[in-house]
């Protein structure tokens, strides 16, 4: 009797296994599609985020380049050439509405509007805050400038190298020349720093009496 029961159990298990394999062959592709969809969706999301970040950084670099022009006329012309999204176009209009050489207070107020607008991406707000700190200069307490710049210089922020450069200049303002040179030299080795920034920092190091950076 026990042999019969064992045989029946084995047959039942085989039948179950056959049914399971049959179901898998029939519907297994659904699971594969779901897995592929999840993986593909995650990859697309990461790619989209990377593209958005790259566009934001490119826009910021273009704006900073335009704002570094020597005269109000060339700054305005350069800003008008910058291409951007709808949100970015709004920022450009704020920047075009005033110029520090013509109306410094209006420029700072426009930048403050951007910096305080929580509906904008952090990259735009960082850009406005960075520009604001540069224009305000000593009119803003050094401690307040350091606090703002330190936040912009946090790892992963798009304008981190530029904020680190400004933080080094605060050390110069405090007469901490050796510390400033060390900070600037570290920046020349920063992989996120552009070649233009590295060259500019090298010139400042030399002006401060430091040795030129040796390319490794």
Structure, explained:
There is one protein chain. With 216 residues, the chain is mainly alpha-helical. The chain is built from nine helices and no strands. It has helices spanning 2-67, 72-81, 86-96, 104-116, 122-136, 142-152, 160-173, 177-188, 195-207. Helix 4 runs antiparallel to helix 5 and helix 8 (177-188) runs antiparallel to helix 9. The mean pLDDT is 77.
- Coarse morphology: globular
- What is the helix/strand order? HHHHHHHHH
- Total strands: the figure is 0
Number of helices: 9
Helix content: over 70%
Q: Biggest sheet, open or closed, and with what strands and sense?
A: none
Main structural class: mainly alpha
Parts with pLDDT < 50 across at least 5 consecutive residues? none
Overall average pLDDT: 77
Compact summary:
76% of the residues lie in helices and 0% in strands.
List the main descriptive attributes of the protein structure presented here.
216 residues; mainly alpha; 9 helices; 76% helix; globular
Task: Please describe the topology of this protein.
Blueprint (H helix, E strand, L loop, with lengths): L1 H66 L4 H10 L4 H11 L7 H13 L5 H15 L5 H11 L7 H14 L3 H12 L6 H13 L9
Helix pairs in contact: 1-2, 1-5, 4-5, 5-6, 6-7, 7-8, 8-9
């Amino acid at each position: 009797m026990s042999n019969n029961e064992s045989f029946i159990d084995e047959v039942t298990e085989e039948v179950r296994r056959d049914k399971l394999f049959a179901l898998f062959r029939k519907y297994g592709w659904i699971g594969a599609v779901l897995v592929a969809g999840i993986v593909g969706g995650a990859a697309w999301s990461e790619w989209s985020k990377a593209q958005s970040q790259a566009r934001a950084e490119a826009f910021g670099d273009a704006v900073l380049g335009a704002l570094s022009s020597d005269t109000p006329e060339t700054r305005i012309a350069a800003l008008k050439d910058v291409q951007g999204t709808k949100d970015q176009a709004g920022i450009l209009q704020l920047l075009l509405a005033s110029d520090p050489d013509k109306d410094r207070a209006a420029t700072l107020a426009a930048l403050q509007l951007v910096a305080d607008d929580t509906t904008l991406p952090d990259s735009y707000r960082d850009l406005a805050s960075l520009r604001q700190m540069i224009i305000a200069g000593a009119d803003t307490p050094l401690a307040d400038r350091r606090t703002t710049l330190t936040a912009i210089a946090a790892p992963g922020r798009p304008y981190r190298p530029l904020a680190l450069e400004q933080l080094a200049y605060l050390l110069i303002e405090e007469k901490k020349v050796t510390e400033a040179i060390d900070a600037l030299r570290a920046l020349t080795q920063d992989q996120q720093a552009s070649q233009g920034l590295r060259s500019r920092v090298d010139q400042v190091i030399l002006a401060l009496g430091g040795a030129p950076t040796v390319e490794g």
